[in-house]
Design goal:
Belongs to the pyridoxal phosphate-binding protein YggS/PROSC family. By secondary structure, the protein is of the alpha/beta class. It has a single domain, classed as Alanine racemase (TIM Barrel, Alpha-Beta Barrel). It is 44% helix and 17% strand. α4 crosses α5. The chain is globular. The model has no long low-confidence stretch (mean pLDDT 96).
Length: 222
């Protein structure tokens, strides 16, 4: 696993350099969903400090002890967040990348006010406007951002997207980067194991890489 992690880091560094972007312009979010705590520990031993998880319950089982041992560990929620899990999510995660609807924004604002814990939030943009997929439609992002910031006081720092499976991702990455630049948002989370180098070329500040680091996901038998 360490060799795969090093390979991904090297690819990011080379692509970043080729684009004329500075060192540290791109943060690697190592997506550890479905992988055991031992795999995360191996990545931590290799110097990785930023991780992504899809499910609140899985992260709760894996990360509190690791965060105690590694205070500089940063944990991102990259999967959908149900409102009944907001309390746990605000307590555990440092970044919530999937702010995708007004009801969730309200719940997050309420919990942050109650606890004074304020994880950064990224708005999930449905760049392909797929009806079955979560996220804010591109035309509605500006108004949603204003409501989140001005009325609710949420710490929104960026945008994220998951392009449609059958589309060329570059056009979605270009759309997201342009929106973030226009709105003055510094964080752009896009790109996964199959397309993270393309995402870096299009201005990603965060790439979410799982399989290319940890290998195939170990799913339990049905």
């Amino acid at each position: 696993m360490t060799a795969r992690l090093d390979s991904v880091r090297r690819a990011i560094a080379e692509t970043t350099s080729a684009c004329g972007r500075g060192d540290g312009a791109v943060t690697l979010v190592a997506v550890s969903k479905t992988h055991p705590a031992e795999a995360v520990e191996e990545a931590l031993a290799a110097g990785q400090r930023v991780f992504g998880e899809n499910r609140v319950q899985e992260a709760k089982a894996k990360f509190p002890t690791l965060k105690e041992r590694f205070p500089d560990l940063e944990l991102h929620l990259i999967g959908p967040l149900q409102t009944n899990k907001v309390k746990d999510a605000v307590a555990l995660f440092d970044v919530i990348q999937t702010l995708d609807r007004p009801k969730l924004a309200e719940a997050l604002a309420e919990e942050m006010a109650r606890t004074s814990r304020r994880p950064r939030c990224l708005i999930e943009v449905n760049t392909g406007e797929e009806p079955q997929k979560a996220g804010i439609a591109p035309a509605e992002v500006e108004a949603f951002l204003a409501d989140c910031r001005d009325r609710l006081g949420l710490p929104v720092t960026g945008l994220m997207c998951i392009p449609p499976v059958d589309d060329e991702p570059a056009m979605h990455f270009a759309l997201l980067e342009g929106m973030a630049r226009r709105l003055g948002l510094p964080e752009i989370s896009m790109g996964m194991s199959g397309d993270y180098e393309t995402a870096v070329r299009f201005g990603a500040t965060h790439v979410r890489v799982g399989t290319a680091i940890f290998g195939a996901r170990p799913y339990p038998p049905q």
